[in-house]
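Many introductory courses stop at the sequence. We go one step further.
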Amino acid sequence: MGLKLYNYGLSGNCYKVRLLLGFLKLDYEIVPVDFYPGLEHKQPDFLDINPLGQLPILEDGRVRLRDSQAILSYIAKKYDPSASWLPDRDATKFSQIMMWLAFAGNNLVAAAADRLVDSSATFSAPEIDKGRQALTILDDQLAERSMMGHSWIVGETPTIADIACFPDAALSNYVGIDHEAFPHLRNWMRDFRRLPNFLTMPGIPEFA
């Protein structure tokens, strides 16, 4: 049995997993889930797989995982022999990556919300402000890293911290956040798009 990803094409969290699978050139099966408008993730059959009713879900033989950050960690640990995407033998880098994974899952998500799930969705000023605050934190981190001669959030090469943060940062323009206000963020997103085997998704800007 190989890797199986329960996926919704417009989900930023599912996109994170597809990105890493693509960077590592891994074969996997996609199980499409009609997240919107079908709300398949709320149906009993799906809830038997994930009682939280959330995507993505990764299955690898008998292993079943939910939460994109946990899935990224699992894939990097098991399928990246170079350990470049998750350098877990370096305690400092590893803990910093975990910190930015938590940031992506808890803070940065406000920058994009479910902007591609429902094209009629509107976003309140507090939601947009929260997104800008998160992007400011990320932009400041990237500015500091740039001063040190590095292009990535942690370490000298891209890690799963970059993958975890990229989708919501890139898609934040859908809630009315102007990327021009975050120059270091723009440079990082441009460099991320240029990585070998990069996969795009609807709504990801070019960042020329």
